[in-house]
Amino acid sequence: MKSEIENQENVLRGQEIAKRIALLLDERASNVDAKVDSQLSYARQQALANMARPSSAMAISQNGVIQLFGDYWHQHRLLVMLLMCGLGLVALFTMQNIVNQDISEQGDAYLLASDLPPEAYLNEGFGIWLSENTQQ
Length: 136
Description:
Distance between the termini: 83 Å
Number of strands: 2
Order of helices and strands: HHEEHHH
Radius of gyration: 37 Å
Helix content: over 70%
Number of domains: 2
Oligomer: single chain
């Protein structure tokens, strides 16, 4: 019960402070000269126009530079995460190729170092002999 009363009092205090701030801003706004007023009006119009314009995949900036992917370049965390995922995939594929290369090199080395000549492995009878001996 006490916490509800305290919450209501805090809300009322916040509303009172907001009203005071609004009154102070209204008083200051009425004393603004015409030049500042026109500049603020122009800035407000520009801000509203920028909010209404959807960000496209490609836009041309005020300096004439083409900006690709709109505002996505400002999201550094997302870009770093995507970059790290891409590098991880490249590393994974590279490691798989290295491992597969080692296995094929070992097989070739085994064939060349064995007592049988490589032609013996190409003989059809050797395949039959090998399948019979591996089934036992």
